[in-house]
Amino acid sequence: MFCAFPLLVAQAENAVPDEVVVKGGNFYVGSVFGAEDYAAHTNTSVASFAITKTEITYQQYHALLEWADAHGYKLSGGCNGATFEDCLPPEQDGGLHPVTNVSWWDAVIFANALSERERLPPYYLTVDGKTLKHAPDDGSEKVIRENPQASGYRLPTLAEWQVAARGGKKALTQGTYGQRYAGSEQPDSVAHFPSDSQSFGTVPVASKRPNALGLYDMSGNVSEWLNESYAVEGGKTMYYFCGGSYLERTHSLASCDLHTPGFFMPDIGFRLVRTLDGQ
């Protein structure tokens, strides 16, 4: 059973995050920034998708925990952001810091739980076609498969994440698609990065300006888990997390790191996407 903190009593509607629609098409993704003709030099195609305006907050995560537990899902408790490497009090700032200390497993299982509660087909399945509800005991990612036809919540691919962070078609029209950070060439107005010892902690989501699509914190605050993997020597699969954080400043939207799916840190969280049919 999960504790209910005074400001976070299970108001289930709080678990449903606001979204922005990213129109599909052909785009450039990669490490080139600056004034370029990105519309004429594309290297990937993405279908239309909805993406959450902010990183999933502790409030949203916590609001779903009791329901998820009652329906067989197993999730860690997460943290209401962090200061240095310690969890902030659950009630601080109304739980509006990004949820942190969550693994890749927590992110995809939360996505499935939210999908089921909202009556959407889950994206992440076990190898025998059942809804993935908990991490495997041995941590092996080989026990899961994806259902690409599902309209439920999932993590973004690397291409989807960078297209959204750069601002999509709106930024192409505005001529801002080549900005190095999500909504600016300079990070200060759009990204919460470390500047001194006093800034080594999260801030509530949407504390900085959004990018062209109205998305917040795609640069800074916490890094975000992606649905993008890389096989390393020895058969292990690593998953990307991108965007930089209050602990680690990045030089551009192309700066990412990767780790095993059971890894968690006080400066890693996630946001979710949904594939949109017919858009």
Summarize the model shown.
With 279 residues, the chain is of the alpha+beta class.
Topology record:
Blueprint: E1 19-22, E2 25-27, E3 44-46, E4 49-52, H1 58-70, E5 79-80, E6 82-83, E7 86-87, E8 99-100, H2 104-117, E9 124-126, E10 144-146, H3 158-166, H4 168-174, E11 223-231, E12 237-242, E13 256-259, E14 268-269, E15 273-275
Parallel strand pairs: 11-14
Antiparallel strand pairs: 1-4, 2-3, 4-15, 5-8, 6-7, 9-10, 11-12, 12-13
Helix pairs in contact: 1-2
CATH hierarchy class name: Alpha Beta
* Radius of gyration over C-alpha positions, nearest whole angstrom: 18 Å
- Beta strand %: 15-25%
CATH homology-level superfamily? paralog of FGE (formylglycine-generating enzyme)
Topology as a string of helices (H) and strands (E): EEEEHEEEEHEEHHEEEEE
Shape type: globular
At CATH's second level, what is the architecture?
Answer: Alpha-Beta Complex
- Give the quaternary arrangement of the chains: single chain
Mean pLDDT: 92
